[in-house]
């Protein structure tokens, strides 16, 4: 007879195995159809009563499952279902078989598929069909095994061990039916676990690191290495996606030059960030999660600036002007930068590349733009570019910084911790060369390390070959002491500065004087080459023309006015900045493109020299009161101070040293050479190679980190790792050039 009750359940009992106690139910093959909750309770109690089932005896004890006997509302269908399930639980005083088979998933015992609430009942009976030790509640009080713990959470989403339904906890397992992306946003390319969820068989962290962060960084790195299949497999296996669909769309728009689409995503993202009513679809597919410090106008300015520059490069001046007037100007962001952009309208493509830092590749400039924009996007949804490489670089740099004698150009291996031996450091003096006849005021290696120039009080300039230590040229045309010399970027030319108020430019190959600058009325103290090697700046004690920019034809390109005298100057390797130290305890920093002064840095005492790092980021300032300051040229902050050398009366020129410029090196009035570690400021070594007088200048070979030179009142010394034949040793005269080597 067909049932018309909305909560009928058809139950078919079947044996666990042949000959098992369940055969009693199997043989009868009863199909019980229950009508109404009361009749159902009677049928279940009858089937479990030991008087009707001889196989349910006390010989098979097993604690019953806990029941929820809370009354359910008859008027609520869900409550009736819960009451039926609750009534189906065995009584705590009634033993039940030790072995029960899982409920068969055949159509016969699943019941009508159209019944409301049937899935919860089926799942509940499935759970009740397992003995308690399969549900992670061991009888002996011991914690369940990992396998048993996994079975605890093997239930469908929305099913709870309590009456009714509940959402599956993200802390237990992420449902395969729940499509999620980064930070809980929906993913459009397959299923994945919500970020922050835990995979059941995995620990929640990776040796103290966030598992999600580590996994997503690995996925990014695999893509960057070209292992796309492995990256996709890792994403699928871990359940973590690299990016949300919104980030992927934004990335594609920027790299593809679809500026309107990129702007729309940005504007919508800022609108959502400022509103509590966020459209779900746009939040998942077309918006970004922004960093707290993100600035709307700044990000739009970067996008429109890229658009403007690309139009300029294509020589579409009308469209570029339109973008400048109608899109960039209304943002009212970085007015100074806006003026600089407007000046590019009349520039050639070559000048455009030089002033903007472009290499002529649109794709690479867009990559840089995306990297800049990513700083304003939350890293939880858009990992910064090359994140693993950056972290590995930081690990290497940390090891280098902690290595007291690190002096090699080879990067440390990632396989083991790094430490350099002190014996590999150039420390000892071993060779004397008799060339200068008086105090040596200056020394400097060429950029390729193949030559060394020394200049001194005897009016002479000597150029040495660092391979066999022979003198290549002896330049004798100056009429007074020579205090400075500087190599051109390609080492083909050399400029020397003398107290005879002249600067001379020499051909390194021939030793011939190419140009003489005799326009200064006071001694020329220093000079610096422009990045192109076709012009240079001279510094002098002449307060009317303390700094001048010259062409190789002897034409004065620009004269800085300031009414002060300059002791030293240097131009950064990127050609952007000119740094000048005056005699009034100040350092002036100029823009070499505009000739404008960027800033003036006051100092506690008179500076005697300046040296700029190879990366053009830091400047080393030697002060007359026995202190050296390392200054960040971008922020003007004093990063570190180095003390210990003796100074007060004479000009001493300090410099960076080592393979990666890890050291700060300076002479001293106590005839010693001081070497500090740049990162911690500690003194690494104090060398006593000079006999007497002041050590005036230091230079470290940029091509050979095992060689450095020092020029002093008594001589010039050079240290090197490898030894040379003793036959190279000659005179013991006072004013000589000494070459020193570490064992």
How many strand units?
33
- Work out the helix count: 17
Percent of residues in helical segments?
A: 25-40%
Task: Supply the number of structural domains.
Answer: 4
- Spatially, the strands of the biggest sheet line up as 5-33-32-31-30
The fourth-level CATH homologous superfamily of the largest domain is YVTN repeat-like/Quinoprotein amine dehydrogenase
Unreliable stretches covering 5 or more consecutive residues: 1-44, 50-201, 722-743
Question: What are the main properties of this structure?
Answer:
WD repeat, 4 domains, globular, disordered C terminus, CTLH domain-containing protein, CTLH_C, four-stranded antiparallel beta sheet, five-stranded mixed beta sheet, single chain, 743 residues, WD40/YVTN_repeat-like_dom_sf, repeat
How would you describe the overall organization of this protein?
One of its GO terms (cellular component) is GID complex. It comes from Penicillium cf. griseofulvum. WD repeats lie at residues 433-474, 475-516, 662-686. This is CTLH domain-containing protein. Residues 1-27, 44-206 are annotated as: Disordered. The structure is a single chain. This protein has 743 residues and is an alpha+beta fold. It folds into four domains: 10-152, no CATH class; 182-238, no CATH class; 245-385, no CATH class; 425-741, Methylamine Dehydrogenase, Chain H. It is built from 17 helices and 33 strands. The strands form nine sheets. It has a five-stranded mixed sheet, with no helix packed on it. Strands 6-7-8-9 form a four-stranded antiparallel sheet, with no helix packed on it. The chain has a four-stranded antiparallel sheet with strand order 10-11-12-13, with no helix packed on it. The radius of gyration is 40 Å and the shape is globular. The termini are far apart. The relative contact order is 0.06. Mean pLDDT is 75; it is low at 1-44, 50-201 and 722-743.
């Amino acid at each position: 007879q067909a049932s018309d009750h909305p909560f009928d359940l058809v139950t078919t009992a079947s044996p666990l195995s042949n000959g098992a106690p369940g055969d009693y139910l199997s043989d009868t093959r009863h199909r019980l159809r229950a009508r109404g909750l009361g009749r159902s309770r009677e049928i279940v109690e009858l089937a479990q009563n030991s008087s009707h089932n001889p196989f349910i005896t006390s010989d098979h004890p097993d604690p019953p499952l806990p029941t929820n006997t809370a009354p359910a509302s008859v008027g609520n269908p869900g409550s009736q279902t819960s009451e039926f399930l609750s009534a189906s639980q065995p009584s705590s005083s009634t033993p039940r078989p030790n072995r029960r088979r899982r409920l068969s998933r055949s159509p016969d015992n699943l019941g009508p598929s159209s019944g409301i609430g049937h899935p919860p009942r089926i799942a509940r009976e499935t759970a009740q069909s397992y003995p308690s030790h399969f549900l992670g509640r061991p009888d002996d009080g011991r914690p369940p095994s990992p396998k048993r713990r996994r079975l605890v959470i093997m239930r469908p989403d929305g099913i709870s061990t309590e009456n009714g339904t509940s959402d599956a906890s993200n802390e237990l397992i992420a449902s395969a039916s729940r499509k999620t992306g980064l930070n809980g946003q929906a993913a459009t390319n397959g299923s994945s676990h919500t970020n922050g969820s835990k995979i059941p068989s995995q620990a929640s962290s990776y040796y103290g690191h966030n598992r999600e962060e580590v996994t997503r960084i690995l996925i990014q790195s695999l893509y960057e290495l070209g292992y796309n299949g492995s990256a996709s497999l890792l994403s699928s296996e871990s359940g973590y996606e690299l990016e949300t669909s919104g980030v992927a769309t934004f990335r594609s728009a920027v790299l593809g030059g679809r500026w309107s689409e990129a702007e729309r995503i940005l504007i919508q993202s800022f609108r959502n960030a400022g509103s509590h009513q966020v459209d779900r679809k746009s939040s998942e597919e077309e918006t970004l999660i922004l960093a707290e410090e993100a600035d709307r106008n700044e990000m739009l300015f970067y996008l429109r600036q890229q658009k403007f520059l690309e139009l300029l490069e294509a020589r579409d001046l009308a469209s570029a002007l339109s973008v400048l007037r109608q899109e960039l100007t209304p943002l009212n962001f970085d007015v100074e930068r806006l003026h600089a952009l407007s000046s590019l309208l009349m520039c050639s493509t070559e000048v455009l590349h030089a002033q903007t830092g472009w290499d002529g590749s649109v794709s690479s400039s867009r990559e840089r733009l995306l990297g800049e924009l990513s700083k304003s996007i939350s890293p939880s949804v858009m990992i910064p570019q090359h994140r693993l490489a950056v972290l590995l670089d930081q690990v290497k740099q940390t090891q280098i910084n902690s290595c007291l004698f690190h002096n090699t150009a080879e990067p440390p291996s990632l396989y083991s911790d790094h430490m350099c031996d002190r014996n590999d450091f150039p420390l000892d003096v071993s060779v004397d060369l008799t060339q200068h006849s008086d105090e040596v005021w200056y020394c400097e290696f060429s950029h390729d390390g193949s030559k060394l120039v020394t200049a001194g009080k005897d009016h002479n300039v000597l150029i040495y070959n660092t391979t066999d230590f022979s003198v290549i040229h002896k330049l004798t045309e100056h009429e007074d002491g020579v205090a400075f010399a500087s190599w051109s970027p390609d080492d083909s030319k050399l400029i020397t500065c003398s107290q005879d108020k002249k600067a001379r430019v020499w051909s390194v190959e021939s030793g011939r004087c190419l140009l003489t600058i005799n326009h200064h009325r006071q001694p020329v103290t220093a000079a610096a080459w422009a990045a192109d090697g076709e012009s240079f700046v001279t510094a002098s004690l002449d307060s009317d023309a303390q700094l001048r920019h010259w062409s190789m034809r002897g034409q004065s390109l620009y004269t800085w006015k300031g009414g002060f005298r300059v002791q030293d100057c240097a131009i950064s390797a990127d050609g952007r900045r000119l740094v000048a130290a005056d005699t009034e305890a100040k350092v002036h920093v100029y823009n070499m493109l505009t000739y404008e002064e960027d800033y003036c840095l006051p100092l506690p005492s008179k500076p005697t020299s300046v040296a700029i790092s190879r990366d053009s980021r830091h400047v080393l300032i030697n002060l007359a009161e026995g202190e050296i300051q390392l200054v960040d040229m971008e922020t003007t902050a004093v990063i570190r101070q180095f003390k210990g050398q003796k100074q007060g009366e004479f000009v001493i020129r300090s410099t960076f040293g080592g393979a990666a410029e890890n050291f700060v090196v300076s002479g001293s009035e106590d005839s010693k050479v001081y070497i500090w570690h740049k990162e911690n400021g500690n003194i690494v070594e104090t060398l006593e190679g000079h006999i007497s007088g002041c050590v005036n200048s230091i230079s470290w070979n940029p091509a050979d980190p095992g060689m450095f030179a020092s020029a002093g009142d008594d001589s010039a010394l050079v240290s090197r790792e490898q030894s040379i034949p003793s036959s190279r040793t000659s005179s013991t005269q006072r004013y000589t050039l000494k070459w020193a080597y570490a064992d």
